Amino acid sequence: MKEVSVLAPASVANVVCGFDCLGFALAAPFDEMNLRLINEKTVRIINQDDHNLPTEPEKNVAGVALSAILDEIGDEIGFEVKITKHIKPGSGLGSSSASAVGAVVAANKLLSERFSRMELAEFALKGEFLASQGRHADNVAPCLYGGFTLVRSVFPLDIVEIEFPKLFVTVIHPQIEIKTSEARKILPAQVPLKSAIHAWANVGALIAALSKGDYGLIARSLEDLIVEPVRKSLIPHFDEVKNASLKANALGGGISGSGPSIFMLSETLETADAVKQAMCEVYENTKIEFNTYVSEINSEGVKILDK
Amino acid sequence: MKEVSVLAPASVANVVCGFDCLGFALAAPFDEMNLRLINEKTVRIINQDDHNLPTEPEKNVAGVALSAILDEIGDEIGFEVKITKHIKPGSGLGSSSASAVGAVVAANKLLSERFSRMELAEFALKGEFLASQGRHADNVAPCLYGGFTLVRSVFPLDIVEIEFPKLFVTVIHPQIEIKTSEARKILPAQVPLKSAIHAWANVGALIAALSKGDYGLIARSLEDLIVEPVRKSLIPHFDEVKNASLKANALGGGISGSGPSIFMLSETLETADAVKQAMCEVYENTKIEFNTYVSEINSEGVKILDK
How many degrees, rounded to 5, is the angle at CA B24 between CA B21 and CA B29? Predict the structure, then answer.
């Protein structure tokens, strides 16, 4: 095989109580990537969208991830990658992880699947590092594995796939910029032990609720007293969106990644659509532009397209 | 029915990473309690063991829990309770919770099961409060429900039953005294956010691992960088016991409740017995007396005996 196309989905990290470890994949939006083997040991990037991302491999998330693979294999080959990003950079929807995961999964296909999924995650993390300046796998993992994932540890990397019931997600992406580095800076370095206990009880309960398909418990566990109270100040109308969504029967939700996107989980597609309507009503009264997405949880993750 | 006997099991709270929320029930040791309805609105306590616990209802955990029931029902009846405690008070094995839970479950049987399990938990918590001076349900829940439980919240009470695979527990109870209040006092009021994230990732992973029966992940998740490093100083030879147990193939373990008991989980009874042997070898070289218990996880919890 000389050429392969993949779809790399957006993802929601943190999932309210699971800061820096939980995440899930969306069915939409996703990035499209096409990779081709070339006979030169280099990575050639062709952007086919309007995001003006850098094409120098060392400044591009997909480029860094692919270069890591080239360093590992040592062969005198390279990759030409055409990228059409539909996941806006800086949306809080795992845009950089989609670039990194899409690139390494496509490359692995061209290399006759020589690497394991865990090895691919390591390559993708090198790309992701460029964007987040840290070793964060909470978007890489769901994009790569699909469904809900929990990153138990990053050193060594330990990714746990979580069982989950039918769930629908509504996302609103206000077109404002929040730098991940800024969103990290405002977090407290220390938290009260009491709040931490509260948080891990919720994480444990959420995992149990997802595994059992207990929607009531999912709703009760989607609670965060540590990160959300601090970060929501960066997102205009956060409380209004959340309250309107809960009134429209969303199970719960909060900030997607470091924002500005807000996500809400629902038990049915009908409810997820009603939640979208409720979110829109809040933002239509503002001067802020926004996108919305309604999607089932994507259990498959990154997808290789058959030609 | 005028009289009922129950067995109320010991339990392990915290379970390494799940401080103040996780717990599980043991098959042994357990307390024996016999309750009889009497025609006077009072609680009469008859201790049939050597622990010299108070017999005034307001100073006795079972007494407080039973008085709470009498207050609620208002009828002109009372309870005579005979207690044979095999779970040593102060062992860190949920001795007070066993007293409270055994008493309320037996009383409810005499009252034609008029209360739900959640209501019984509330009565038991009133008894438990006498012992721990706090609203802690992490021993009450497993004693009452059996198996592994997670207390998501105490206000309002939210108890989650956790699925789990076949597991065996080895416990060593060194005969030293640790006051729960002392063990609480040495805990930090604040913890680094980084450690808290690490902790909730482990709790989530442990719940997933128990639900899936993934023994490798159970072992990796039994890790605590917050409470164990501080509290283990109260337990002589803690590290030696832990290391010897892991060497004997225990999955992992740590301090039971606030100690001094140490528990270890194993995949098979043979391993649990080998772990007991390893624990004994550590303590036989000391002047500290100790008991050991090997037990399967008790999936049933408190048990009403048929006459």
Answer: 135
Same domain, B88 and B156: yes
Distance from CA of A140 to the nearest CA of B (A): 16
Cβ contact (<8 Å) for B203 and A206? no
Residues B40 and B151 in one domain: yes
The ipTM value here is: 0.96
Domain tally, chain B: 2
Contact B50/A at CB under 8 A: no
Contact B211 A206 (CB under 8 A): no
B268 catalytically annotated: no
Catalytic residue among A180, A228, A267, A271: A180
307 residues of chain B, pLDDT tens digit each = 789 999 999 999 999 999 999 999 999 999 999 999 999 999 999 999 998 999 999 999 999 999 999 999 988 999 999 999 999 999 999 999 999 999 999 999 999 999 999 999 999 999 999 988 888 999 999 999 999 999 999 999 999 999 999 999 999 999 998 877 788 889 999 999 999 999 999 999 999 999 999 999 999 999 999 999 999 999 999 999 999 999 999 999 999 999 999 999 999 999 999 999 999 999 998 999 999 999 999 999 999 997 6
Euclidean distance between CA atoms B256 and B10, whole angstroms: 11
State the pTM of this model: 0.97
Same domain membership, residue B147 and residue B17: yes
Q: Are residues B149 and B185 in the same domain?
A: no
- Residue A170 in contact with residue B124, Cβ under 8 Å? no
C-alpha span between A87 and A26 (Å, rounded)? 11
Question: Which range marks the domain in which residue B275 is found?
Answer: 168-296
Contact B163 A205 (CB under 8 A): no
Instruction: Judge residue A90's burial from the number of C-beta atoms within 10 Å of its C-beta, 0-12 exposed, 13-18 middle, 19 or more buried.
Output: buried
CATH number of the domain to which B138 belongs: 3.30.230.10
Q: Answer yes or no: do B158 and B16 share one domain.
A: yes
Residues of A in contact with B18 (CB under 8 A): 200-201, 204
- From the list A115, A102, A92, A91, the residue with the least C-alpha distance to A63 is A102
Q: Are residues A94 and A215 in the same domain?
A: no
Determine, for residues B196 and A192 on separate chains, whether the beta-carbon distance falls below 8 Å. no
- Interface mutation target, options A138, A197, A222, A231, chain B, most CBs of B under 10 Å: A197
Catalytic option among A128, A170, A228, A267? A128
